[in-house]
Write a structure and sequence with these properties.
alpha+beta, OB fold (Dihydrolipoamide Acetyltransferase, E2P), 451 residues, 4-stranded antiparallel β-sheet, 19 strands, Chloramphenicol Acetyltransferase, 7-stranded mixed β-sheet, globular
Length: 451
């Protein structure tokens, strides 16, 4: 018999920790090789982690809700095949050997991530305070390196608000500054001069913040899930970062509906995929992004990065939150290719089978609240993108159209309202409306040969 270490995997280059959200097996259960063992949540994706070997779950070291660094041993599996021990040890060994352990630096036990607070404790969250800088702090100590090794989102927000991450004491592993720490610090109203040596105070970040509401008798208080807390942080950060403006335009989908009706059976027989309206919309948006490249860009300080690939993120609503898988290089895909990628990503998002790379590097996002009957909305931009398209419900409406004899007549047409939220820092209203008009024309004149 031998024990195999089960580790917290690194689910992406920039991800330093993960939350063990659910155990799918309990101690004593038999486990097959590659059978899902536990679920994790990171700031990029929820995923099921398979067992590296067949055996019996002998020991659980990390409980549900705990957040630990990658490469941390979370459980041990008892197996008869000693050769399989190398699978766990090999994956943890090189990375662990190259890391400086907190216990080796401080001489004490490794720091533990704080568990999710009880509801009563969540009423008065602590705000990280600036560390007192001394000449000895040169950015080379282990603690400072851990704090500054925050996620790209945290580093971006800190740079935009003139905050020195190394001067904060975070609540993450070994004092690592999390996005929640940073947003709490920004909303604390501490003057910009106390944040860093920057002479530029961020607009709207100061001032007093509202007191937290108190629960009333009979209320139920629940801690946010990892995914919900991250969505909260990202949406708040986006509102602080981008100057949001939203334009609306009604789209007539009569032609697409007719093409879909005529081609659906043939398309599904040849591809094995169901043909919905969304691939037509994505295809039209991709053409629009190539025509108006500013909509497919990112803002980096005073520079604009024009993205060469068109990577379309499509929001997928889940029972436990929202996730945005990305169709990479959509400009190189046919309608069938877009349909196949869309259906595959959405299906795997709902079964927690996505990899971190499949939710990264989006350049433009489409969200479809219309599936729930919403007429229109004003979606929040997914940073660091500069625009997001909302698709309202597709329904039949009476429209005034011109007949063949030039006379106006009333016809029943399937229509939907499209909304474009855009970053007014770099996109003018005229350009946003021209983009929407281009998408509208492309959809309403969609070629049947394109299917």
């Amino acid at each position: 018999m031998a024990l195999v270490d089960i580790i917290m995997p690194q689910m992406g280059e920039s991800i330093a920790e993960g939350t063990l959200s659910k155990w799918l097996k309990k101690v004593g259960d038999e486990v097959k090789r590659d059978e899902p063992l536990f679920e994790i949540s990171t700031d990029k994706v929820d995923a099921e982690i398979p067992a590296p070997a067949a055996g019996v779950l002998a020991e659980v070291l990390v409980q549900e809700g705990e957040t630990v660094e990658v490469q941390t041993v979370v459980a041990r599996l008892e197996t008869e095949k000693g050769a399989m021990v190398g699978a766990g040890a090999k994956s943890a060994g090189p990375a662990a050997a190259g890391k400086e352990k907190p216990s080796e630096t401080s001489g004490g036990p490794p720091p533990k991530k704080e568990s999710i607070p009880e509801p009563a404790q969540s009423q008065k969250p602590s705000v990280p305070q600036p560390a007192v800088s001394t000449p000895a702090q040169n950015g080379n100590s282990f603690e400072e390196r851990v704090r500054t090794r925050s996620s790209p989102l945290v580093r971006k927000i800190a740079a935009e608000h003139g905050i020195d991450i190394a001067a904060l004491q975070g609540t993450g592993v070994a004092g690592r500054v999390t996005s929640k720490d940073l947003m709490g610090f920004i909303s604390s109203g501490i003057p910009a001069g106390a944040r860093s040596g920057s002479m530029h105070a961020p607009g709207g970040a100061g001032g007093e913040h509202l007191p937290l509401p108190e629960p009333w008798p009979g209320d139920r208080v629940e801690a946010m899930s990892k995914m919900r807390a991250l969505i909260s942080d990202h949406m708040t950060a986006s509102r602080r970062t981008s100057a949001h403006v939203t334009s609306f335009m009604e789209m007539d989908l009569t032609r697409v509906a007719r093409i879909r009706s005529r081609k659906r059976a043939e398309f599904e027989a040849s591809t094995g995929e169901k043909l919905t309206y969304m691939p037509f919309i994505i295809s039209s948006v991709v053409k629009g992004l190539k025509e108006f490249p500013i909509i497919n860009s990112s803002v980096a300080g005073k520079n604009v990065i024009y993205r060469q690939p068109v990577n379309i993120g499509v929001a997928v609503a889940l029972e436990w939150g929202l996730i945005v898988p990305v169709i990479k290089r959509a400009e190189d895909l046919s309608l069938a290719g877009i349909t196949r990628s869309l259906n595959d990503l959405a299906a795997r998002a709902r079964t927690k089978k996505l990899s971190p790379e499949e939710v990264q590097d989006g350049t433009f996002t489409i969200t479809n609240p219309g599936v729930f009957g919403s007429l229109m909305g004003t979606p929040i931009i997914s940073q660091p993108q500069v625009a997001i398209l909302g698709v309202g419900t597709i329904e039949k409406r009476p429209k005034v159209i011109q007949g063949e004899d030039g006379e106006d007549t009333i016809a029943i047409r399937p229509c939907a309202y499209f909304s474009l939220s855009f970053d007014h820092r770099v996109i003018d209203g005229a350009v946003a409306d021209q983009f929407l008009a281009f998408v509208k024309k492309t959809i309403e004149e969609y070629p049947e040969s394109g299917v």
